[in-house]
């Protein structure tokens, strides 16, 4: 019997690990990448390319290399713990080379449409239409499809939420367009949004600008990359036991952690105190922001109420005049324009996906979305596990949901033993 053919859309980290997972299960992957290189989000581009993810020159990954690596391919020892985007590209190229992935990738090939074949109910097959640069379109038939296009391709620019923006006399743009602070020397800049991009960009610009104002609607918990003792923070603070304690005692865990985060700098004093608990949203990872605030190079402001000429008016009534540039770090929308409309329905603000992977309405589970997930940590290992499960479903070698959807213990420890372990290790975990 011929190997099942699988289309992988996108050659970023999620696409690469999906190709590898296909090969490990004896499937035949064909990856379509619309750009001229692998890497996805981590491929820096001098000029923004519409429809693709973009990053700025100073980006350093928030997770340590120990936590962001694929399970069977640790980064070389000479690479730093928290890598610059150029070093992540080195790692991804080594990964692709080690497992012979590039031979399955078709660069500069855009997927135009993915639709079910007329006999889908029986075959589960898909028709995938592609277009290569300066060439005619082609139609392919695949037994399964893995979508790995991510969620940082469509900037969310909610201008209607900011009255008077049409009268603003300066320049404004989304963080998707930001590359470096070049050209912002001596400017007065307002950055709207305090996610990881907003914090990074505010710090970056503050090194050359006259003044940077960081506007936040709801505040944020700010953590650093370095733990006491100098080790990467995620290695020291993340553990299975810690996760178990958080699930058993969520309120206590949040309060304890928030107290620790307020020890180096009081978030309320710095204007950053959020209304939400720590685990309610992904925190801001930034080593430099507190220092830029205390030195006056970055000033935290509340949400923007309106614009008037070159002035920005905030909800607390304060006004900043003569603003030159506004950067909207307001996040991203997502979309899969190549998929049928019926498969793009949303549950709330997310795509309707079972376990963030499979569309529940399909009669045959032969379409998977990999890497389309927000988690407290690096995407690479999450995408790797998603790809493993998806390819096993395609292969139909593991139909036991307990095996494929969770990593729970098969034989939980007796309750008494569990509490003995908790009491013994609690001082170590919360230290």
General description of the model:
- There is one protein chain.
- The chain is α/β, with parallel strands linked by helices and 431 residues long.
- The protein has two domains: 5-153 and 334-399, FAD/NAD(P)-binding domain (3-Layer(bba) Sandwich); 157-221 and 267-330, FAD/NAD(P)-binding domain.
- The chain is 26% helix and 20% strand.
- The protein is built from twelve helices and 22 strands.
- It has helices spanning 13-24, 65-68, 85-98, 120-123, 196-206, 233-237, 240-248, 250-261, 289-294, 379-395, 401-405, 415-429; strands at residues 5-9, 28-32, 105-106, 109-116, 126-132, 137-142, 144-147, 154-155, 171-174, 188-192, 211-215, 222-223, 284-285, 298-301, 304-308, 311-314, 319-320, 325-328, 332-333, 346-347, 350-351, 367-369.
- The strands form seven sheets. The protein has a five-stranded parallel beta sheet with strand order 3-2-1-7-22, with helices on one face. A five-stranded parallel beta sheet has the order 9-18-10-11-14.
- β1 (5-9), α1 and β2 (28-32) form a beta-alpha-beta unit.
- The chain is globular.
- The N and C termini lie far apart (57 Å).
Q: What key phrases describe this protein's structure?
A:
alpha/beta; five-stranded parallel β-sheet; 431 residues; FAD/NAD(P)-binding domain
CATH architectural type of the largest domain: 3-Layer(bba) Sandwich
Number of domains: 2
- Percent helix, as a range, is 25-40%
If you average the pLDDT, what whole number results? Answer: 89
Strand content: 15-25%
Query: How would you describe the shape?
Result: globular
Number of strands: 22
The low-confidence runs, each spanning 5 or more residues with pLDDT under 50, are 397-418
Strand order of the largest sheet: 3-2-1-7-22
* CATH H-level superfamily of the largest domain: FAD/NAD(P)-binding domain
């Amino acid at each position: 019997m011929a190997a099942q053919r699988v289309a992988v859309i996108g050659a970023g980290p999620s696409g690469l690990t999906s190709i590898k997972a296909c090969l490990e299960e004896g499937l035949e992957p064909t990856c379509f990448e619309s750009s001229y290189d692998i890497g996805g989000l981590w491929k820096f581009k001098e000029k923004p390319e519409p429809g693709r993810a973009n990053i700025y020159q100073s980006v350093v990954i928030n997770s340590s290399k120990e936590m962001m690596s694929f399970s069977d391919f640790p980064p070389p020892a000479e690479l730093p713990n928290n890598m610059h985007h150029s070093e992540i590209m080195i790692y991804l190229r080594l990964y692709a080379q080690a497992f012979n992935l590039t031979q399955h990738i078709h660069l500069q090939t855009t997927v135009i449409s993915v639709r079910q074949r007329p006999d889908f109910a029986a075959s589960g097959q898909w028709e995938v239409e592609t277009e290569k640069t300066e060439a005619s379109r082609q139609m392919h038939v695949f037994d399964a499809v893995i979508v790995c296009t991510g969620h940082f391709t469509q900037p969310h620019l909610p201008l209607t939420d900011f009255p008077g923006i049409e009268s603003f006399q300066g320049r404004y743009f989304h963080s998707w367009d930001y590359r470096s602070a070049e050209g912002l020397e001596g400017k007065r800049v307002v950055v709207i949004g305090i996610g990881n991009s907003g914090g990074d960009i505010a710090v970056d610009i503050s090194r050359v600008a006259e003044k940077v104002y960081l506007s936040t609607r709801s505040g944020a918990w700010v953590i650093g990359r370095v733990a006491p003792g100098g080790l990467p923070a995620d290695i020291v603070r993340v553990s299975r036991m810690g996760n178990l304690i958080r699930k058993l005692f969520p309120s206590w865990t949040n309060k304890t952690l928030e107290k620790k985060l307020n020890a180096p700098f009081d978030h309320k004093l710095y204007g950053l105190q959020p209304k939400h608990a720590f685990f309610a949203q992904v925190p801001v990872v930034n080593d430099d922001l507190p220092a830029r605030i205390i030195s006056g190079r970055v000033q935290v402001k509340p949400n923007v109420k309106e614009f008037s000429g070159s002035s920005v008016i905030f909800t607390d009534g304060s006004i900043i005049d003569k603003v030159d540039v506004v950067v909207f770090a307001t996040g991203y929308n997502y979309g899969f324009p190549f998929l049928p409309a019926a498969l793009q329905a949303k549950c709330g603000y997310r795509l309707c996906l079972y376990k963030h992977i499979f569309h529940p309405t399909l009669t045959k589970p032969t379409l998977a979305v990999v890497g389309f997930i927000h988690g407290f940590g690096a995407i690479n290992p999450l995408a790797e596990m998603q790809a493993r499960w998806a390819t096993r479903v395609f292969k139909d070698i593991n139909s036991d949901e307990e095996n494929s959807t969770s990593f729970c213990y098969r034989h939980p420890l007796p309750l008494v033993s569990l509490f003995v372990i908790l009491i013994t290790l609690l001082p170590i975990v919360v230290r």
